[in-house]
Design brief:
By secondary structure, the protein is of the alpha+beta class. The protein folds into 2 domains: 4-153, Arc Repressor Mutant, subunit A (Orthogonal Bundle), CATH 1.10.10; 190-285, Transferase(Phosphotransferase), domain 1 (Orthogonal Bundle). The protein has 10 helices and 13 strands. It has helices spanning 4-9, 12-24, 36-40, 44-56, 74-86, 124-129, 142-161, 200-216, 252-271, 277-285; strands at 31-32, 60-63, 69-72, 90-99, 103-110, 113-120, 174-178, 181-184, 190-191, 219-220, 229-232, 235-238, 245-246. The strands form 4 sheets. A 5-stranded antiparallel β-sheet has the order 4-5-6-8-7, with helices on both faces. Helix 9 (252-271) crosses helix 10 (277-285). The radius of gyration is 22 Å and the shape is elongated.
């Protein structure tokens, strides 16, 4: 979880040292200690002092085998991303409002407006389970996997929202992005799984319409369910986009059908609403 108390204690050279380790991790699983002054553009004595502080804050990890080396802990990566966004408009981080397999979500304030802050964790669990033997280029370290996932979701949100008003998909507005962190607008309403809707047929139609617009834009969510749809009196908003595929993907039709089946199964299970999956998929593809 993001620790705002520690973040407030960080100084300019703490961030420079973290950035130096980040740079080194593009080539090394554990960044050799002797390389950090060059990567951080700091004197060796200053780097040693900063490393001790960062270890004490649990923002970096140390290895002594086969050499003294360091890498960023996810709290340190959080600090780098938050530090970057605070220079551009982020002024507050509030309560943690969600923890998933691949993300942690907070409330926040950006340019004076309430936002959602989503820290991607894609690859972190699987990375911990894999033993690496060689000190090679480390583009597959979890921080870079999470960074790519965040960039992918941010770009998808921007693209889906930038169509004309009639064809734009209802998604959270992408506000800013750095490393594995996205700032986005708050989706209106509540999560579908936690809401009892008063007109399930109407809401199901609204969700199907968003799926159709998504498909028309060349995208398929590919992980759609009652857990990543928000509903309000105005309709439905689709969230969580890092796993989307395009309509040219080899498994596009399978993934589209799976999305539709998930939504239809939920409405049938909870409300007794029945729709033919093949007919809905046919409508989406028109």
């Amino acid at each position: 979880m993001f620790n705002s108390a520690i973040f407030k204690k960080l100084e300019k050279n703490d961030f420079r040292t973290l950035i130096g380790i980040e740079i080194g991790m593009r080539q090394h699983r554990w960044v050799p200690a002797e390389m950090l002054p060059s990567f951080s553009k700091l004197f060796a004595a200053e780097v040693r002092y900063r490393i001790d502080r960062l270890l004490g804050f649990n923002l970096v990890k140390k290895s002594v085998v086969p050499y003294d080396g360091y890498r960023i802990h996810f709290d340190g990566y959080d600090a780098l991303a938050v530090g970057a966004l605070t220079l551009r408009g982020l002024s507050a981080i509030g309560d943690n409002i969600g923890v998933g397999k691949e993300s942690v979500v907070y409330e926040g304030v950006y340019d004076g407006e309430p936002v959602i802050l989503k820290f991607h964790r894609a690859g972190y669990t699987s990375f911990k389970q894999v033993a690496r033997q060689r000190d090679t280029g480390d583009r597959n370290h979890w921080i870079f996997i999470a960074r790519r996932a965040a960039k992918r979701e941010y770009e998808a949100l921007k693209t889906l929202a930038e169509f004309s008003s009639d064809s734009a998909v209802s998604v959270p507005a992408a506000i800013d992005h750095n490393r594995h962190l996205i700032a986005m607008s708050i989706a209106p309403g509540r999560e579908l799984s936690k809401t009892a809707v008063d007109d399930p047929d109407w809401f199901l139609d609204e969700i199907i319409e968003q799926i159709r617009k998504t498909y028309s834009a060349g995208f398929i969510h590919s992980d759609l369910s009652e857990y990543n749809v928000f509903v309000s009196p105005d309709g439905a908003t689709l969230i969580d986009w890092p796993g989307y595929v395009t309509t040219t993907h080899p498994q596009a039709e399978f993934l589209l059908e799976r999305d539709v089946k998930n939504v239809l199964a939920f409405f049938n299970r909870k409300y007794g609403v029945t729709r033919d999956c093949e007919e809905v998929v046919g409508y989406v593809r028109v």
